[in-house]
UniProtKB/TrEMBL annotation:
Source species, domain of life: Bacteria
GO biological process: Gram-negative-bacterium-type cell wall biogenesis; peptidoglycan metabolic process
Organism lineage string: Bacteria, Pseudomonadati, Verrucomicrobiota, Verrucomicrobiia, Verrucomicrobiales
A single Gene Ontology CC term: plasma membrane
Protein known as: YdcF family protein
Domain DUF218 as annotated: residue spans: 45-156
Amino acid sequence: MLMSFRLKTSTLCVTAVSIIVAALSWIQWGNWPNAVPIDPSWKPDLVLVLGGGDEARSREALRWHSRFPGLPIVVTGDGGTILRELTEAGVPNGLILHEQNATSTHENADFTDPIIDAMPEVRRVLLITNWFHAARSLAVFRKRQPEREFAVAFETASQVPNPWEVKSQRRERLAALFYLFRYGVNPFSP
């Protein structure tokens, strides 16, 4: 009986350690996410730019603004950098709304929900983020705002990722696991 308990405990410990080592190895050296941009088959009603990241998000938002110049743009969780870059590039202030309190992707989705609710004509939303953040952000918004249709746009990854992109990709793998267990958001399925 005691031997059986020790064997079960040992097996459980070895299994747990193996899972932890595998997860840490994947976070450190995995190749996910490896997003490929796909333009939506529909015209968005709103462009939603997620704060954080780098100037790639502003450039991508400007690319979509030039394609659909009258669309409203919501910038969420940004300290003002993206907002400034958009207005300096000529986007009219009247098209931009700024939600400045979000500090995470989860909060981006929660805090923009009432803003978008105030625009009943908005059903299709184009998220703008970085390539490494695309899968998780899309999964979060689809889960938190299921009444809307979402697509995601981003600049593609560099041929040779720079150190910031490599670090961000690692962080994204860790965040994906956290969001899976904390919020039940599965960024690994389409």
